[in-house]
Every structure is written in C-alpha cells, then in structure tokens.
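User: Please work through this fold.
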Amino acid sequence: MPDYSDAHLKQILTGTRSIAVVGVSTNPVRPSNYVARYLGLKGFRVHPVNPASAGDMLYGAKVVGSLADVNEPVDMVDIFRRPEFVPAIVDEAIDVFPDLKAIWMQIGIEHPEAAAKAEARGITVIQNRCPKIEYQRLFGELRMGGFATGVISSKLK
C-alpha cells in the first residue's frame, strides 16, 4: 500500500524545487495550465513539457517537446497524460534525470507497472493525486470543507 500520508506528501512537496509538467496546456482553462501556474507562484521552478506547444512561452518558461529538452535538473515529474502514455514518460524521466526524487500522476492517472519501475529506482511515486490540491490542503490554503481561506460571505452589499 502506498504511503500517501499527509507527512509523506508534505515531505515530497517541501523537498521539491523543480517540476517538469508533462502534458501542460497553454490554454488557461485547462487544469494542467492552472496547476503549472499555481506551482510557479508557490516558488517551484516549472518546466512545461508538451510537443504540441514546443517553443511557446508559458508563465515565463519556454515549453519544450520532451523531458530530454529540459536543460536543468528536475526533482519531480508531474504527469498530465493518459495512463497508456505513462510508461514512456517514466522511462524517459529515469533516463534523463538521474537525481529525480518523485513522479506524480495527476487525478485519474494510475499505472502500477510504471510506478513499480520508478520505485525500484528509488523514486517516490504518487498516483491519482494533484500536487496543487495537496499543497493547498497541507499548507493551510484550504479549509476542511475545501473552500479557500479568504472571507466568504453571502451578504449583499
């Protein structure tokens, strides 16, 4: 059984500085776009990866076509691709980033075989979770009910 305890997730997030977001969209209404934006606003170095948008700029970073095109070390690979694409992404991540700490598969994405392969290399794998949601939850940006901590009122002004 994987360890998705709050302490474990918090340890991953606090130990991560650089994240490659695979499958990121330049469309601002897509979840991959606003997750990448949020992570960047929280101080993570975000490397957008999407061959369909390679060369475009996204939140101050150039979108690259593959993980091999990221020219800096990466601590975490965040995957926004369907499960059938996960094994190739995991293989490339293992090959390209020898010091990779974590692979994070977004909500709805799981691939036990690819996860086992990464874990055998000492890489932590989180499946079917969102680092943005977990960050907000673990660092006090969401209340128990899931609402933002800003003032919410039904009063008419």
Observations:
- The helical segments are 6-14, 31-41, 86-96, 112-120, 131-138.
- Residues 143 and 153 are 15 Å apart (CA to CA).
- The longest strand covers residues 18-22.
